[in-house]
Amino acid sequence: MGSGTSTAESANEHDHDDHHHDLPFIKKYLFSTDHKIIGYQYGITALIFLFIGFYLMMVMRWSIASPEKPLPGILAAFLNDAWLNDEGRVTGDLYNMFGAMHGTIMVFLGIVPLAFGAFGNFVTPLQIGAPDMAFPRLNMASYWFYFLGGVTMFASFFIPSGAAEAGWTMYSPIATTAQLDEPNLWYTGQTFWLIGMILLISSSLLGAVNFITTIINLRCRGMTWMRLPFFVWAMLVTGFLLLLAFPPLEVAALMQLMDRLVGASFFIPTGLNFTGAGSVDAGLLDVAGGGSPLLYQHLFWFLAHPEVYVLILPAIAIVGEIIPANIRKPMWGYKSMVYAVMVLGFLAFIVWAHHMYLTGMGNVVSTFFQATTVIISIPSVILLTCLFISLWGGSIRFTVPMLWALAFLPMFGFGGLTGLPLAFNFIDLHLHDTYYVIGHFHYIVAPGTIFGLFAGIYHWFPKATGRMMNSKLGHMHFWPSLVAMNGIFLPMMIQGMSGFHRRWYDGGLNYEQIAGQVLFEKDSIFAKLLSNVPGIESGKTIEMIDLNHVMTFSVWILLIGQFPFIFNFIYSIFKGKKAESDNPWKATTIEWLAPNKPGHGNFLSEPIAYRGPYEYSVPGHEKDYSPQFERGPDGIILGEEDPMAESEGSE
Amino acid sequence: MNILGLINELIGLPELASEHGSMVDHMLEMVHWLVAVLLIGWSIFFVYCLVRFRQKRNPKASHAGVKGHASTHVEVAVVAIEAILLLGFAFPLWAVRSAEFPTGPDVIKVKAVGEQFKWTMHYPGPDGTFGMTKPELISGDNPLGRDPEDPNGKDDFLYTELVLAKDRECIVTVSSKDVIHNLALHPMRMAQDAIPGSIADMWFKPIKTGRWETVCGQLCGAGHSGMVGYMEVKTQKDFDAWYKENTPSPSPEKSSADSSDEEKAKS
């Protein structure tokens, strides 16, 4: 090794003054303040958590489809045997624990960090032509708060009580009174969850402040508001959502923590009397009382509904970047989209109580929240319509990122539209907390947001690594995922309409009438088709409960479909085909000006925005793309005298 | 098959047994038509674009793209339909559910009390008035903590299933002893959260006799998925017979003995 060290490297070792280039490994890759490294840290950590959340879901789906069969060894290998019952089957307790943690991990540790933390961090400064985020150290702190929160959540699986088990919503009193039989209440999954949430929310707040400041203050010359890429707009709105919506849950988590640990009663009413069937002793609960369970629900959903838009907006934004680059024409209705996303951000704060339609809501309150909920569908429809219409007149290149972005449109559309029935209190009487709801929001977040995130990974991979991801493996990832996602979530809509509720660990075994409703008659063509699914006997009438096997089977397909991605991702970092230039997609936004694998400070020359973000196929231009950063024949720096024009004029 | 029932028919809804339930189904059908039209419209446009404007077929993209205002018209149409759904259906229908409770002696009143992991139904007896309940009186023999001294409670009785009469309006008062539950009655298209520390009423009118499952619709612990209950709608005659059979027969000696016992205990 020693003799082989190049002169350049050894020169670097001695060049102590140039601290940008010879930072020790720990400072460069671990405690980095560089927005790109922090973006990678967020991305890798979040991807790992996504797979953990996926595993929890596989155990749950096994239990739903085959509650009478022991958990197969391949799934049981990763968990504590004591959690299964004597026959090796999943119990109601284990299911509730995994259900609560699946939701928590997917939302707070998987998708938000990947969408906002990873893509936001990596792409935003590059797109606005900034050398870094406004507060690099705050940025680093944000990641490490997130990391600590994640470790706290993950560690809770390994303590005797197990992780939290009261649904991802952690409603009081069930969350407050869960695991009360443990000797030390600090040392329980429920408490870990609350502490974990406080850390995660703190992380989001630090991130949000940083994003807002960066986008307002660090835009490069010529980057006026209406020249911002749509992605940056979406990040700005997302930043405000995080900033304003998360503090109430931080407070709620602290209050519930006080309820659990020091006997406060913020959310515990007077006179709770337990049967002894859970972890609480039979009899009157010994607390002060006088609190309100509904207060917790309000605080929770005041966060958790804007949170839905935190999950969606980055994905729409990524898709909004990828589509123009792959249709070679500008995004249609850029201004409409910008205004729509602002309206969406505002309305997101005043729809939360539609999650609480069945709490005994009065007429006036219900009228308000039904109206706002229906109104918020309008900016959502505008966003999607603009993306659809953009396709018209384009020259569509079916690259791998484009496939994901295109699939996002109908999947997200279906998820969004199935939210319409749920917006009405009256219909909610039938659909509340059924699988219809589960199908609806998973369509938005799984084949919606996650497809958008995959699109982003394939799209910006060359910028981050200088190499392309393999396109064949990309196809092997995309097609099974598309089919399997629908195999999982479409049956949910049908089950939900028939009255299947969420959070049944045995998939409806106890409800003979509901489970036994006939879906397809014995000899119909669909019944024959479905009898090929493992777990469904051939030649039988297909009942609603049999759909559980279809979903669980699809989950395994989805798992297999992710292997090409994992291999592709790791292989391509080291051995992928080198990107032919710094702008392999021939795109127009400023991140493509930066060299691949951008160094500290990002740009080799000062980036200047000369035009709008999506100037593709401009009539009269030579190339079919006119990047923001190239002056060209007609570039103008808005908001200041153009020095080039001046000097040209004087000549 | 009625076209205005097509989507419900295709996807499948559980049996319907309440008066307002047909409106729930009807509204669900209407909203699903709006969803279907938008989805099919988008899909046709989407697939056409993918084929017509693929790179091979259309190597040179148009800078301007769509110039017309068709999408604005679609937007306006969607807004109009949503306004009709809200003003014409959602608001008035919910107003009836949440504010216009039936009154009069014919209304069946029952309290549904959730606990881990079952429901207890509390009927007021022939006098139509519930006796007091106090959480501190709850014991194995007295699951709801009924106050034995309340004269209104003498004719009250408890039952494990929700029993109602066909064609008679009922008010079910839902509450919980421990954590949040939800009493979901799918054949009635009715549901209500049971939130400890508060009570909430729901009302509906069964129009069909039968026996159905009731669902606990909020996560309430490890036994949540087994918290299946039953409801039965009887004819008026059967209901009256059942009500009479379950009403405790007045036994003045016993109750006076009870109270004198208590007085002794106090002194």
Descriptive account of the structure:
The complex is a heterodimer of chains A (651) and B (267). Chain A has one domain (36-275, 286-575): Cytochrome c oxidase-like, subunit I domain (Cytochrome C Oxidase, Chain A), CATH 1.20.210.10. Helix content of chain A is 59%, strand content 1%. Chain A is built from 21 helices and 4 strands. Chain A has helices at residues 7-14, 25-30, 35-65, 73-76, 92-127, 136-155, 174-177, 189-217, 230-261, 293-327, 334-347, 363-390, 400-417, 419-422, 425-431, 435-465, 471-497, 512-515, 525-530, 547-575, 643-650, and strands at residues 273-274, 283-284, 518-520, 542-543. In chain A, the strands form 2 sheets. A two-stranded antiparallel sheet of chain A has the order 1-2. In chain A, helix 3 packs antiparallel against helix 20 (547-575). Chain A starts with 6 loop residues before the first helix and ends with a helix. In chain A, 58% of the residues are buried. Chain B is an alpha+beta fold. Chain B is built from 5 helices and 10 strands, in the order H-H-H-E-E-E-E-E-E-E-E-E-E-H-H. The longest helix of chain B is centred in the N-terminal third of the chain and has 32 residues, at 21-52. Chain B is elongated. The relative contact order of chain B is 0.13. The chains are: A mainly alpha (651), B alpha+beta (267). Chains A and B meet through helix 5, strand 1, strand 2, helix 10 and helix 12 of A and helix 2, helix 3, strand 7 and strand 9 of B.
